[in-house]
Fold these 2 entries.
Entry 1:
Amino acid sequence: MANLKDIKRQISSVSNTQKTTRAMKLVSTAKLRRAEELAKRSRLYAEKMNQVIAEIAGRIKCSKIGGIDNRCFTKIENPKIVDIIFVTADKGLCGGFNIQTIKAVKKLIAEYKEKNVKVRLRGIGKKGVEFFKYNEVELFDSVSNLSSKPDKARSDSFIATSIEDYKDGKIDGIHLVYNGYKNIITQELHVTTVLPVDTNQYECAEMPSSLLEIEAEDEEYMLDSLVTKYVEYSMYYSLIDSVAAEHSARMQAMDTATNNAKDMVKTLKVQYNKARQAAITTELIEIISGVESMK
Amino acid sequence: MDTFKLEILTPNGQIFNGEAVSVTLPGEEGEFGVLAHHASLTTLLEAGVIDIEKENKAVESILINWGVVNVDEEKVIVLVEGAVAIRGDNESAISKALEDARELISSIADSNSAIASVSAKIESAAKRLL
C-alpha cells in the first residue's frame, strides 16, 4: 500500500488540476455566450446569401438567364487542382474538436488523390497546421490567430488568393472544412464546396417560370462581385461558427475533466483513510505486543 | 394597395422584416423603385438610402454601404453589408441613429459625389421623424 505522504501529494495535485479545469470551463462558458450570439445573428444572413446564390445558379443552369458563361457557376469536369481550406482552433484541450476536422480533411485529400486531382491545402488555426506539418503533408499556406479572433479584413485577404486563382483558372474548386456550432452540446462538421457554386440545389421544374433579369450593364462584373462577396462571407461565417463550436467543445471537455478529477479525489481520499487506519492499527498492535512481552 | 414581403438583412442580424407597399433602392445603375408583383430581378446596390413605404404610409429610411437585392413576385430580399436604420421613438434614439449613420458614411471609402446627397437624405429623414 502506498504511503500516506504519497497519497496526500496526489490528492493535492489532482485537486489543483480540478481547479484549473473548472476555471477553464467558466472562461469558455463566458466566451461561448458572446461567440454564440454573433454566430446566431450572422446565420440568417449566411443562409439568405446562399439562397440567393443558389437561385442564380439554378437559373443559369436551367438557362432562364441567357448567355451567361461564368466560371463560378459552371460545373468543372475533370478538375486538376483544388483548394481545401480548413479551420481548426489555435488551442487544444477541446476534446475531439480539432481531430474531427483533420480527419475530414484527410478523407477529402484521399478521395482526390484517388481521382488524381492535386490538392492545395490552406490552413487556418495552429492545431490543424501543426498536425499536417508533423505528418509532412504539404501546406500551401497557413495563418494562425485568425480562428480564435475572427476578423473580416484578415479573412477576406486570406480567401482572396483562392478566389482570384479560381477566376484565373489556376484552381478548379474551393472546399471549406470546419467544425460548426449546432447547439451547446453538439458540433456539426461542415464540408462544403464554395466554388463552383452547386447548381443542383434547384430542380429546373421547380423554378419560377419568369425570367430573372440581371439589372446591370455588365452582368459578368455583377456576378463576379456578388460571388466574391459570397465566398468572402462564407469564409468569415465559417470562422465565427467555428469559434462558437470551439468554445462549446472546450466547455464540455473541461466539464468532463472536472468531474473526472472529482471522482479521482474521492477514490484517493478513501485510499488515504484506509492507509491511515492501517497505520494506526499497526501502531496499536506494536504497543500491545510490546506490553505483552514485558509481562 | 397591394403589399409585398420585404426582408433586409445584415451580417449582424435582421434590420427590417415586414410588409411594404413600395421600396426605393439605390441600385448601382441608378435608383429604382419596387412595387408588389415586380418582375424577378437581381442587382447590386451601392452606398445610399433605402426608403420603405409601409402600409400605414409611414416611410422608413435605412442607410446602407453595399448590398445585393433579389426581387421576385412575392418577396424582396436585400442583403447589405453595413446598415443603419433611421428610426427611434424619441429624440435621443433618433440622434443616436443619425450619429451611427454619419459614422457609416465616413467609413465608405470611395469619395463619390453621391455621398453628399446621401448625407442630405438621411438628415431629412431624421427631421421627418422629429
Note: The beta strands of chain A are 81-87, 118-124, 141-143, 174-183, 186-195, 213-214.
Entry 2:
Amino acid sequence: MKKPSLIFALAVLAQSVLAFHASDALAFPEMIRAGYVNCTSCHISPNGGGLLNEYGRNSSADVLSTWGGENEAKPFYGAFKQPDWIDTGAFAKAVQTAQNNSAMSNGYFWYMQGDVEAAVTFGSQRQWTADFAVGISPDVLNSVQVPGASPLVSRRQYLMYRLNDTTTIRAGKFVADYGVYFPDHTIPTRQGIGFDEGMETYNLEYSYQGEKFSGSITADFGRIDNPSLQFDKGAMATGAMALGDSSKVGYSVFYGTENSNTRELTGPYALLGFTRHFYLLGEADLQFTQPSSGSSTRGLASFERLGYEPIQGLHLYWMEQTYVYDVAGNFNPTTINPMYGIMTNRLIGTGPGIYWYPRPHFYIQLEVQQQFSPNYPSAQTYGFIVGSIYL
Amino acid sequence: MKLQKGLFSATLAFLIAAPFAAHASQEKIDFDRATGSSAFHAVGRPSAIKINGTGASPKGVLTWGDDGRVGGSVTLDLSSLDTGISMRTNHMKEKYLEAGKFPQAKLAITELGIPATNVSKEFTQENASFKGNLTLHGVTKPVSGTLRIEHHAKNAVVHAEFTVKISDYSIAIPVFAGITVADEVNIAVDANAPVSLVAASK
C-alpha cells in the first residue's frame, strides 16, 4: 500500500475538520420546477437558505415531502401558535462520511449544525425585517473546540427594508448573492469560490425579485468584525431571467480584494425544470486571482445536478463537480481559498445521490462519488449521508 | 284553374322549404365528445410564484352558421381543477370558488371572429377573436379572448385563451401564508372536438 503523501494527509485533515465545519444551507433551488421562480417564495432571505416564511413551511408539507400533516409544517410541530409578525426556526444536522482509496479507508461523523433563527417584521406596512441566527459552534458540538474560540456562531444577522413587492435593501451578515445557493455547501461553486456556509460576510444588498427578471447588486465588506479572517472585500452582481414558469438562467460577477490580493469570479448558472419532476441545476464559474506576490491563477469551478422525483419527496440525482484552482498548476492554499484550497488543487467528482424528504422539515441525503484528483494517491470513492431536521 | 292550383302548391312548397334551405350550413362543434383539457395560470405575490393549474375538457355544444350566428355554451366542472398542490387546490375550490355551491363555470359564446363562409370548410386560423359571457361563482360577465382553430372535415382542434379578473366574479382575492394571488388569471382551453352539419331553423 502506498504511503499517504503530506498533501494527501492535509487533504484528509481538511476534509474531516473543515469541510463539515459549517451547516448546509437548507436551500432547495429545485423547487423552481413547481413554479417557485424566486427564493422568496419560501425563504425570508431574498437569495434563499435559512429561515422559512409561512408559505415555505406549508410548502414543505405540501410540495416537498412524501408524507406529512399540516401541523408538522408549523413551528415546533404546532406546539404553540406564533404571531404572524415573527418567523422562527431551529436547525439540527449531522453527517457521516466515508472515503476509500488505495491508501486509506476511513469515515467521519460530524455534527454540522445546531442553530436557531428568528425574523420579525415591523413597520406600518410590515416593510422592515430583522433576522438573527445563533447556534452552537460545530467545534463545540464535535468536541474539537480551539481554546479561546467562541462557542457560538451567528451565520445571519441582518436588517431588510422592503420597498415594494419585488425590491428589498438589506444590510448585515449573510451569504452574499452569487450564483445558486446550493444546499451542498462543500461543492466547488460554494466552498470552492468562497460562498460556503460559515463564510458569511457583511454586505449591503439591493435585490429585485420579479416575475420575469431577478437579481441583486451587493457591496461586500468582508468580515469587518474580524479582519484577521482575511475575507475578500468587494462587490458582486447577479442577474437572472425566467424561461417560462419553471426555469431560469442567470449570470454572476464578483470582484474582491484582500491584502492586495485580488480575485475575480464570473459565470453562468441555470435552474431548468423540464417537467414538474425532472430538472437540471448547474453553475460554472471562472476564477482569476492575482496574489500580491507570486503568480496569477486562472481556475474553474462547476457543479451540476440532474434530478428526477419519481414520487413526491424522493429525488434521485446524478451530480458532477469540477474544481481547478489554477489551470497552470499553481497551488496556493493559503489565502483566497483557505478551505477548499487545502483540500485539493484539482478535483473531479461524479456520482449518484438521493434526497428523501419523508416528512415536513426532515430530509436524508445520500451521495456516492467517484473522485479524481492529483492530490489523492488514486481515484477514490467518497460518500456521505446527511440527516437534517428543521423545527 | 289547374295552373292556379299548381302555382299554389309550388309556392307553398317553397315557403315551407326555404328556411331549411337558407340555413343548411350550420355546424355543431360537439365538446361533449371532445378530448382536451383546460388550464389556468396565476401569479402569487410578492415572490412571483407561478401557479399553473389544470382541469378537465369543457363540455357542451357550440353552433356556428354561415349567417355568422353563433350559439351554445360550454361548461367546466370546477371539481376537476388541480393546482398541483393539494392544500392549494382545496383552498381554491372550497374557500374561493365555492365549488360545492357553484360546481360549474359556463361560457356562452356570442361572437366569433371567423368568416362565416368558412363553415364546414377546411381551414386554419390563428388569433381569431371571440366574445362571450362567462358565468362563474354565480356571476355572469362578458369576456373576450383569442383562439386558434384547425378546422377539418370531421373535427376541429381548438386552443382558446382569455383572461378574467377574479374580483369581477365576487371571488375574494386568494391569500395564503403571506402569498396573494394576482387579480388577473389567464385561462386556456384545448380541445379536439367532432364537428358536423346540422339542420337549423330561424
Note: Helices of chain A lie at 6-17, 54-64, 70-73, 138-141, 340-343.
